Amino acid sequence: MDSIKSLLGNKEEEKDQSVWDDRIIGFGICAGLGLFFSFLGFLFLTSPSSFAFLYTVGNISMLCATGFIVGPTKQIKNMAQPTRAICAVVFVLSMVLTLVAVFQDWSVIFIIILIIFQFCALLYYTFSYIPYGRECLRGICGSVVSV
């Protein structure tokens, strides 16, 4: 029976491969857009509002890109794990606050503070996926601050 399936082609394997191909394409598009928006943001570094908007859109796109690879449900479950729930909430909240600050035309100083906060939250969130990454990051930051 298996030899007949292999001759005719296993539709389920083709379907699984098609879904995986779609995920890779979605990842590539979102990651490409994320990198593009982030790079474009650095071109507007002298305009904090434009930079903040483009940088945040780039981060959202990159977050969506990883969602394509693991799937949106697993992405949310991973973000809600007890070991990284707080840093995931802080990261998402920092992106939302940055967008609100840009669209509500808040103070430039506050927008710059939110950008720095968002970058730190992204760094801490990213290091939460690396075994002992946050401890290493704390050690690096601690040694830099003590100098």
UniProtKB/TrEMBL annotation:
<dbReference type="GO" id="GO:0016020">
    <property type="term" value="C:membrane"/>
</dbReference>
<feature type="transmembrane region" description="Helical">
    <location>
        <begin position="51"/>
        <end position="71"/>
    </location>
</feature>
<dbReference type="Pfam" id="PF04178">
    <property type="entry name" value="Got1"/>
</dbReference>
<comment type="similarity">
    <text>Belongs to the SFT2 family.</text>
</comment>
<dbReference type="GO" id="GO:0016192">
    <property type="term" value="P:vesicle-mediated transport"/>
</dbReference>
<keyword id="KW-1133">Transmembrane helix</keyword>
<feature type="transmembrane region" description="Helical">
    <location>
        <begin position="83"/>
        <end position="103"/>
    </location>
</feature>
<protein>
    <recommendedName>
        <fullName>Vesicle transport protein</fullName>
    </recommendedName>
</protein>
<dbReference type="GO" id="GO:0015031">
    <property type="term" value="P:protein transport"/>
</dbReference>
<comment type="function">
    <text>May be involved in fusion of retrograde transport vesicles derived from an endocytic compartment with the Golgi complex.</text>
</comment>
<keyword id="KW-0813">Transport</keyword>
<feature type="transmembrane region" description="Helical">
    <location>
        <begin position="24"/>
        <end position="45"/>
    </location>
</feature>
<dbReference type="InterPro" id="IPR011691">
    <property type="entry name" value="Vesicle_transpt_SFT2"/>
</dbReference>
<dbReference type="InterPro" id="IPR007305">
    <property type="entry name" value="Vesicle_transpt_Got1/SFT2"/>
</dbReference>
<keyword id="KW-0812">Transmembrane</keyword>
<feature type="transmembrane region" description="Helical">
    <location>
        <begin position="109"/>
        <end position="130"/>
    </location>
</feature>
<keyword id="KW-0653">Protein transport</keyword>
<dbReference type="GO" id="GO:0012505">
    <property type="term" value="C:endomembrane system"/>
</dbReference>
<dbReference type="GO" id="GO:0005737">
    <property type="term" value="C:cytoplasm"/>
</dbReference>
<keyword id="KW-0472">Membrane</keyword>
